[in-house]
Amino acid sequence: MDTDLLEETANFLVGPGRGILAADESNGTMSKRLEAVGVSSSPESRNAYRANLFAMPTMSEAISGVILYDETIRQQAVDGTQIPDYLTARNVLPGIKVDTGAKQLAGHENETVTEGLDGLRERCAEYFSMGARFAKWRAVIRIGGDLPSDACISTNAHALARYAAICQEQGLVPIIEPEVLMEGEHSAQRCFEVTALVLDATWDACKTQGVYLPGALLKPNMVLPGKGHSQRSDVETCAQMTIDLLHNHVPKDIPGIVFLSGGQSEVEATAHLNAMNNMGPHPFELSYSYGRALQASTLKTWAENQDDLSKPHSVFAHRCKMAHLARFGNWSEDLEA
Ligand code: 13P
User: Fold this and answer.
1) Is 105:152 a contact under the CB 8 Å cutoff?
2) Distance 77 CA to ligand 1 centre (A)
3) pLDDT tens-digit profile of 126-153?
4) Residue 295 sits in a domain of what CATH number?
């Protein structure tokens, strides 16, 4: 394991004012997103949207890495070069989603285990040779009734740790993503308790598998009530609960936390990150690995203006700038106007 390379990559990804753009939607998910804005989904339309997204002139001021999907890492950028080469030339590291999706967990209704360990070593080696320097694996944990089960937590933690160890052996920094879903009627306190259990199990499994924590990043959910809960958390409450969780359930040698947005609006996800960074200093960088919270308004604008990229580019530049400011706790709501 090249621990120097892993540390260098992990620290680069959470460098000052920058974070990760998650553009690794599977073809199924991306098709839903495109169809929702009236664009039919094909390899060409997915490439058109993403290649133009990556061509936004100031992207690298806020984006240190982009997570790609297997289809995208093999496609071309606007200048005809391969997308990973194009990103690298712009000082943005290419990353790759390496799980093959959340599948029904046997004997556990409504729960999943994320798959993709078979052949992972060979796939990581190929992605590294194509320029990828980090990877993502998303485990999905659902709250509700008696859920999550111990089986769901332990199988997902085991898979995350096995994935992380294989990635590190192959020179890729693993983003460890155990997402506790916002779907459900649970309180923020329940989200806190379940996320704490999931994180503890994940670090136990990482220890067993020998994962090198200074060369890994954590991608967690924030602590929020379920979408169906009667009360919403205000920004300060979400930020304080999430900070309490992370300070008590994340080893200090993890260099950075890169949050998922998980269905929060663009402004909510930005406000929460901003508030947390204002509560520092923290033992780790607090950054983003947002999908929808960086792309939602840009995708909509692109769909309406495919012949005039200045409009989607200015919308994406704005979201990038807001996220960049939130890294320093310098964002405020009036900047959104
Ligand atoms: P969202 O920010 O839209 O939740 O996506 C992040 C991600 O990559 C989920 O795996």
Assistant:
1) yes
2) 22
3) 999 999 999 999 999 999 999 999 999 9
4) 3.20.20.70
The Cα–Cα gap between 236 and 85 comes to 41
User: Looking at this protein, which amino acid is placed at residue 16?
Assistant: P
pLDDT in tens, 223-259: 999 999 999 999 999 999 999 999 999 999 999 999 9
> Is the full-model pTM beyond 0.90?
yes
Q: What's the total number of domains in the chain?
A: 1
Measure the CA–CA gap between 318 and 301, rounded to whole angstroms.
13
Please identify, by atom number, the ligand 1 atom nearest to the C-alpha of residue 269.
2
Phi first, then psi, for residue 104 (nearest 5°) are: -50, 130
Residue-number span of the structural domain to which 132 is assigned: 3-336
Residue with tokens 């990804």: 13
Of 260, 273, 287, the residue with max ligand 1 atoms within 8 A of its CB, to mutate for a pocket test, comes to: 260
CA–CA gap between residue 243 and residue 286 (Å, rounded): 10
